Amino acid sequence: MINIILSILFKSTGLPKGVAKMKSLLSILDIKNEIDEILELAKQFKESKVKDKPLEGKSLAMIFQKSSTRTRVSFEVGMYELGGNSLFLSANELQMGRGEPIADTAKVLSRYVDGIMIRAVNHQDVVEFAEEADVPLISGLTDLEHPCQVLADMQTVKEYKGNFDGKFTYVGDGNNVCNSLLLICACLGMDISIATPKGYEPNKEIIAEGEKIAKSTGSNILITDDVKLAVKDSDIVYTDVWVSMGDEGQEEKRRNDLIKYQVNKELMELAHPDAIFMHCLPAIRGEEVSAEVIDGPQSVILEQAENRLHAQKAVLYYLLH
């Protein structure tokens, strides 16, 4: 059925067969068998091959417990371009912010809207929300993962490198973005090296799951505290802020621990000459990355940020159409 719908939507664009519809997107693992198809769909949206408004009459509730620029704007614009409506809901303004159980909020919102996107502090809250809701739920970020971000990241990699045969390297804090990058690289069979100080590694369960997947896809996963080893011969070098939302009380310690993990010109010279630099933004120049690198010719951060819109539209279509 989904193939018939896709053929109508994109006419003769030749989308892959066998696309499966998903219920919710809380983790990259929820779509591990559909990543290629979603990325192809995002490509079609970016190339403006949509022939109608597939989400006309649909509504998306967007709950934010954390501030946002790219997530909020890309989902709002994405819903509008697909013909639907979005509702911005600050968690502090909902009764949930005053103690209403997640289950009650989820069940009530399910009577009003066709889907829910939530940008939350705790991953377990999003899991509970999805379990109680009767409509698809999308994670716009939690403390464990950021699946929508890494879909846009892989769309960017595909655009610049043509495939996933190269070496992807992440440098810095092994945070939620790092967790999702590890999983999506493993799912795509792409080699990934992660350089973090000791004590800042990715989530142990994420590592174990990634290594399990990598055995069947051929991905090689390296986790080390040797940043030069990780970056050597890389095709993509990626970093994120050292102090994420919620870590503000650890600013001084984190900056001291991560100072040797700045992505700068000297570090980029260890990568391949045509390597690209990526950052999910916002960035703090002079901390996790030098201005010379992030504003230099190898940086693809603006294309990467734009692709949040197209990847989000692909996810929205998959879930709500």
Terminal Cα span = 12 Å
CATH top-level class of the largest domain: Alpha Beta
Q: Tell me the strand order in the biggest sheet.
A: 7-6-5-8-9
Number of strand segments: 9
Order of helices and strands: HHEHEHEHEHEHEHEHEHHEHH
CATH topology of the largest domain: Rossmann fold
- Estimated share of beta-strand residues: 5-15%
Subcellular location: Cytoplasm
Organism: Methanobrevibacter filiformis
GO cellular component, one term: cytoplasm
Main location: cytoplasm
Question: What is the gist of this entry?
Answer:
With 321 residues, the chain is an alpha/beta fold.
Any overview of this molecule?
It is a single chain. This protein is an alpha/beta fold. The protein has helices at 2-10, 35-46, 70-81, 102-112, 123-132, 147-161, 176-188, 204-217, 227-231, 251-258, 265-268, 291-294, 301-320, and strands at residues 59-64, 85-90, 115-119, 137-141, 167-171, 191-195, 221-224, 236-239, 276-279. It has 2 domains: 2-145 and 308-320, Aspartate/ornithine carbamoyltransferase (Rossmann fold), CATH 3.40.50.1370; 148-304, Rossmann fold (3-Layer(aba) Sandwich), CATH 3.40.50.1370. The chain contains 13 helices and 9 strands. A 5-stranded parallel sheet has the order 7-6-5-8-9. α3 crosses α13 and α6 (147-161) packs across α7.
